[in-house]
Amino acid sequence: MKEGEDIIQILELFGGIGAPRKALINLGIPIRSIDYVEIDEKAVRSYNAIFNKDLKYKTQSVVGWNLKPDILIHGSPCQDFSIAGKQKGADLGKRTRSSLMWETINIIKQMGVWKPKFVIWENVKNVLSKHMRHNFNKYLDEMNNMGYTSNFEILNAIDFGLPQKRERVFTVSCLSGTFFNFNILEKQKTPNISELLEDTEEEKYIVTQPSMLKKINIKDGVFGGRVEIIKDFCKTITTKQMRCPNSGVIDLGDGRYRYLTELECWRLQGYSDEDFYNALSVHPGRKGKLNGALYKQAGNSIPIPILESIFKELIQSEIHLKTKCG
Predict the structure, then answer these.
(1) Could you tell me which of 43, 198, 212, 320 has the fewest CB atoms within 10 Å of its CB?
(2) Which residues are catalytic?
(3) What integer is the mean pLDDT of 239-268?
(4) pTM above 0.70, yes or no
């Protein structure tokens, strides 16, 4: 870090395993995570292991009001918005997991005069459906009432260098009065998924459950089920692989199929192998069994390269604004 160089202060709500922090570190941007809020104790352990040179956090459900972040990132729970869930919604006061999005609004309001320059919200595409859109619109209205201009876009991980078809809604709210331009985000060429796969036929990853094999349902070489065979890319990384639908399965070429490994799922979200093994050190799992904690943490994460692209544009626009005003 250069002497006198600005440090970006971030506040991570529903922080998971720290995708925003990883993205900024990967960009070489000096940052300070002034607080991190996450109620999943296992995710906190992984977060601490990944960022083991920094302050250790405990699980938290509330945040102090005296913080002054430049960027607030919240990926509030998606289960009650998701088609895969029961679509309970996120109406204020309904006490669903997804309704915790209103806590973010409350936190910003309680900050008083100081407000984050940028607020980023990530959630499932179904938040824009006719049944959920009223909550999304209310969120935009609340941000507008606090002085933010907001813009949103559905972004796909496969356009940002990850061979994973994962569409999520990203909303960027700016306090400067400008709309964030998603059209100029830097995208990356995506490699074939084979470049991220392990060479393994370990027994625990082989699909043996009749219910899952039935969902693959290959007849006369034609796919007929809901569990797809992975070719160039996979479907959305889910919190569990031994389920339907899932991210897809790997064809081993001899009538057998295997699930994606925990490491592969982390790679497909943009994490390094070092990140994964740091998390594995605190969640070793049971021998011969799939590691549920590490699958869940990957499935709940935000693709790091998408955040890198968003942060890069935000930082550049902030520098431009300072130059222009100066």
Answers:
(1) 320
(2) 78
(3) 95
(4) yes
